[in-house]
Amino acid sequence: MQSGHNYLPQGYQQDAGLLEDTIACSEKVLSRESSYPEELLKLAEIYYLQKQWEDAITTCYKIILWQPNHAQTYKLLGNSLQSQGKLDEAIRSYNKALQIDPNFVEVMVNLGSVFYKKGEVETAIDLYQNAIKLQPDFGAIYWNLGKILQEKGDLEQAFSYLQKAVQLQPDLPGINSHLIQAYAYQKEGKLDDAISQYQHAIALSPDDVTAYLCLGSVYLQQGELENAIGNFQTAIQVQPHHAEAHKSLGLAILQKGKIEDKFNLELLEKAIKSFLVALEIKPNLNDAYRGCFESLAHLWRHNFDRASIWLEQYSHLCEKNGNISGKIALISSHLQAGNYAIAQETFLDLEKSLLENLSQLTIPEIEALYFHLLFNLPHLRDNLTLNSQLFREIGKQYREQCAINIRQISPKTLHPQSNIPLKIGFLSPHFRRHSVGWCSYDVIGELSKITPEIYCYVTGFLKADDLTKKIKTIAKKFYAPETNVNERDSEIIIKEIIQDKIDILIDLDSITVATNIEIIQAKPAPVCISWLGFDAPFISEKKNYFIGDDSTHPVGTEKLYTEKVIIAPDSFIAVSGFSTLPISENDLRKSHRIGLNQIVYLSVASGRKLNPDLINAQIKILKKVPDSVLLYKGLQGDRALIYKRYQEECVTQGVSFHRVKFLDFSPTEENHRLSYIFADIMLDSYPYNGGTHSLEALWFETPIVTRVGEQYLSRMGYSFLKNLGINTGIAQSWEEYIEWGVKLGKDENLRKEIKEKLRKAKEKETLAPLWNPQKLAEDLYSLFLMVLAQQNRLIMADRDLLI
Length: 803
Known about the structure:
The chain is an alpha/beta fold. Helix content is 59%, strand content 7%. The N terminus and C terminus are likely disordered.
């Protein structure tokens, strides 16, 4: 960091003997005539060079008595006070100089160095930036600003200033040209050249933490995680209390854990520890909050006991720092575990003051609200008005504060569609055996028969499988970055979409994938649509679209959305069926020790979808239907806690707990689907209905009982049954839910009637839209043409305005 003394007038001899002679000569002159402020100033400057701070200060005060509005004197006084460590007094002196001369650039820079020393970094940055505006050719200012930004971890901005400093003043002290050149190579994508230059920089300055951090980031970009981790660890050895180094180490360890076939719990805990250390050192380090939250989310999906220990530390640290991310993590983890009561209580407590304080929250807090609280909200409450209000307000804050790095594409760059067939792009990291993959594959395949211009963009780590291979054969282009692109690195994919001139861009995941949101917020295609993975993202202010049907979105509900809701003519979803293993129902019942005449209810609800009302209703149904059993198959959750919840409810209602059977995890979807074959009735979850699970049950001709709510995600079961022409099992309350469950359990003829309707719905002559992806593809293509035509008119209108 260049300090104030670098901006003294040039020309003074710094040899100790010569300076002493000069001082003696000056004192003789002043002894004869003490009314020369200019001579006094020269003497004060010589004292300063001799590090005789008290003499310099005394002389400056003498000058001020003669000339109280002499800016240069106040500057020198400030420099002397700063050298003595009297920072507040130096600030007063510098401020006086700026009152006299507001454009005194050297004083601005020196004042910036004082604020930097006091830890008021943002004030220092503002001063340096103002100085650059006044004197844009002063290299040392760029250097100071670059070094501060480098310490903050804002390397891209830092190196741009450092490069400018070197261009203006190549002789600046402390320059490591290898480091600057390496970063330039890294930005250009010349990673091998960057590595070589970083290694030269380290050889030249082995104690430069930045070089290790940058080299580690290149290795991380290349997917060489061990090398990345090694460099981050070396950076910590060089400077143990460097927050950015601990944060970077956490990110690398987390990335290593994510590419394992199964998450490595030891790595997750190491990552969390690194993030917590970083936050203890630097409480406002945004990436550390993000990384810690993500690591915790993965950990509590696999080991609630270990996660709870780290979660307590993270929540305590967040509370100490005044950050609400800890509360959001508590809501997410308890809901995931199946501990609904604590999750809901924490949410209601948070909601009380949330809307009033949204504009004061930090970026990590807004991101945690948007991607985690909003994801959990439909599980916690079925109130469309209140929920949509939170969605709109949090979505607005996310759009304004967090998505600012991705600029919306100008209408000038968008091409109005004029040729058929349309170019249709899909965004997802889930082009594989995943709910999104199963529910989109058939429709994408049918769309490829209408237009061969199908483009798939992978927006995160993809664990490819047999379904991935099938999707690849459909797509004209299947874009999956070769390097280990960070999930949030959206600009690369945006460039691909613009280059491919996509007409319709379909986001398959909504707020469950951050990259998708950043991309559709940028709007790199004339029409951007969210479909399938979740509710609408609530970010577009009627510029983007969301697909539903008249059952999921009855008339009037569209007013509560920020996206334009597209209503599919029949169903918002369609699949051609699901496969399972060849085994008989009798053999399955025997293998699970279930009698051939027993009524089998099935619940496929993860811990997040479980709540006391649902468990209460299921056990009440068991109580009223003699010789019935409930099979519980929750794919995620704290098994011991869920087991306890069912046991407590059985005791309360006087039902033998042996009638609740817990099924183990299945190795494949085909194994899992065997559950539907020997189940008589599936009991759907509420307020978040089953999606893929309900479709699977209906395909295997298993009647379902579903409760209809207000929000889209509590109306999916209703949409499926209405689409199949079935009213049986549709409940508007828990009382009706229980009544339908009991009636279907006791009435064998009613079950047979429903099974027959479900069988006929799959036949070619009477094929229901739910099982007809060809029809949905044709319906969607027609809707795409319509909305694209509307959008083209808007694009042309914008172009006219821009000319």
